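Practice problem 4.
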């Protein structure tokens, strides 16, 4: 019963089958293979963006860092939420890949940036002052680091403020499939039609072995990203194994079905914790991730029963001490897994 992370989940059978098929015989290297061609075409078709620049990489940190490097100059400020993955979990990769751009943290409830708060943060940068960083791109995370999601209207409002200042908007979409599946909108509606200029399209957390895509809706940046990916050491020679994953992931809506399964299991968790004494949900889950406080004794029972998830606070105090935890459902979690977890929590 692993609820620690969707990264801990297995590879979906369809993805594994695609990898096995791609492994037959030889193929041209460095992306000059039919699987990569199909993957790029699939991304463009799914997002209704036939001219988009699409570059496959192996992990989300790379996708974020390359995207921001293409949008920011070394002396720019990159505006992000204070809990954003680029700020908390990427070991300075955005700063490194941009050549020194500075992350400017923006506060906001539920790990979301508000449009007016963003306006103030951008305005506080001394544009034109050689002693200050200059205004650079904005990045938002969908789904956020607290399990919430930006609505389409919120994305549009943030994009409007961003573009009003002549800046670009990037979306860290490590879990964008979960957000799209929950919202019932099209991929285009959640991205470029809402004003997003660049997207890190996640696959690894949602059934792939390891593939993400840098998707930039301005084709003029294609060559720059091509060079940055190679220079940064992230152009795979055996690129077909990335292409095979992404092509299968997007084929016939597999990515949204997998995300829908993960979301459904999280909805089951959310419904179940409502009946547990001492449980307090921090933010209602918009997809497949939940932060909930539970009595220390409930966590002890769950861990003793084989459950795995992360505690976000020290495991100390009396049995009834509330301790915050993070629970994540990947696509493979079953109803039985969730039922058992809830039983252990209830005691």
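Answer key:
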């Amino acid at each position: 019963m692993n609820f620690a992370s969707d990264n801990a989940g297995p590879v979906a059978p369809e993805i594994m089958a695609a990898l096995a098929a791609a492994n037959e015989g030889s193929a041209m290297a460095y992306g000059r293979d039919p699987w990569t061609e199909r993957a790029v075409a699939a991304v463009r078709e799914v997002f209704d963006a036939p001219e988009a620049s699409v570059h496959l990489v192996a992990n989300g940190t790379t996708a974020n860092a390359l995207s921001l490097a293409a949008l920011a100059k070394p002396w720019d400020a990159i505006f992000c939420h204070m809990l954003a993955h680029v700020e908390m979990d990427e070991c300075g990769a955005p700063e490194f890949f941009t050549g020194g751009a500075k992350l400017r943290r923006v506060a906001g409830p539920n790990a979301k940036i508000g449009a007016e708060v963003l306006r103030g943060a951008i305005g506080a940068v001394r544009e034109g002052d050689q002693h200050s960083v200059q205004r650079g791109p904005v990045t938002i995370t969908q789904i956020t680091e607290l399990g919430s999601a930006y609505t389409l209207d919120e994305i549009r409002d943030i994009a409007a403020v961003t573009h009003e200042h002549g800046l670009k908007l990037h979306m860290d979409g490590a879990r964008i499939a979960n957000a799209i599946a929950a919202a019932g909108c099209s991929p285009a509606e959640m991205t470029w039609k809402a004003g997003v200029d660049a997207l890190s399209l996640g696959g690894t957390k949602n059934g792939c072995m390891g593939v993400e895509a840098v998707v930039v809706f301005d084709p003029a940046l294609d060559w720059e990203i091509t060079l940055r990916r190679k220079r940064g050491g992230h152009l795979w020679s055996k690129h077909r194994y990335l292409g095979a994953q992404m092509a299968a992931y997007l084929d016939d809506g597999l990515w949204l079905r997998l995300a829908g399964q993960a979301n459904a299991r999280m909805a089951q968790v959310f419904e179940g914790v409502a009946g547990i004494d001492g449980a307090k949900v921090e933010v209602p889950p918009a997809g497949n991730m939940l932060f909930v406080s539970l009595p220390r004794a409930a966590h002890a029972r769950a861990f003793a029963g084989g459950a795995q998830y992360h505690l976000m606070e020290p495991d100390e105090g009396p049995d009834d001490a509330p301790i915050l935890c993070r629970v994540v459902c990947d696509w493979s979690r079953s109803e039985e897994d969730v039922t058992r977890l809830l039983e252990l929590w209830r005691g």
